[in-house]
Amino acid sequence: MTEFLTPRPLAAGDRVGEFRCGQEQLDAWLRGRARGNERSGASRAMVSVTREGRVAGYYCLSSSSIVRDLAPAGLAKQQPDPIPVVLLGRLAVDEEYAGRGLGASLLQHAVTRAIEAAEAIGIRAILVHAMMEHEVPFYERFGFTRFPGEERTLFLLLADVRATIA
């Protein structure tokens, strides 16, 4: 049996007030903005909870775009302007559950959801803005590439993901 439940949409009864990942901005977003963003349609938050109902980790996705002239050649090739992307706006794991693979599991779930969305609408890549420099290698391990000139902005082409899982 796994320690964490499969990520699911944020629900009214989720215990978000107990969540602490070590970055107050990420904690505050979950407590104060996630539900409002859900209601307004700005983003979708997914949570992984423990069997006791405590939020162990979360991520959020939203639609976004990149101006083609600012994109690396591999991302911009034969694309419209702007280039449609999915933004991985937040990804965090509670400090109590860090180091157990939950971050990787959440990222894999987010990528899967982006691929599913790309079946219905045009999406070229997943974009992430790492909040801290030490987070960049985490994304690079999963195939994300840094934007030239942007230290903490990374992208992952959905075509590359599809080729990997095919």
TrEMBL record:
Domain N-acetyltransferase intervals: 17-162
SUPFAM superfamilies: Acyl-CoA N-acyltransferases (Nat)
InterPro entries for this protein: Acyl_CoA_acyltransferase, GNAT_dom
Superkingdom, taxonomy of origin: Bacteria
Catalytic activity reported: glycyl-tRNA(Gly) + acetyl-CoA = N-acetylglycyl-tRNA(Gly) + CoA + H(+)
CDD domains tied to this protein: NAT_SF (cd04301)
Molecular function as annotated in GO: acyltransferase activity, transferring groups other than amino-acyl groups
Keyword annotations from UniProtKB, A to Z: Acyltransferase, Repressor, Toxin-antitoxin system, Transferase
Gene3D superfamilies cross-referenced by the UniProt entry: 3.40.630.30
Name of the featured protein: Acetyltransferase (GNAT) family protein
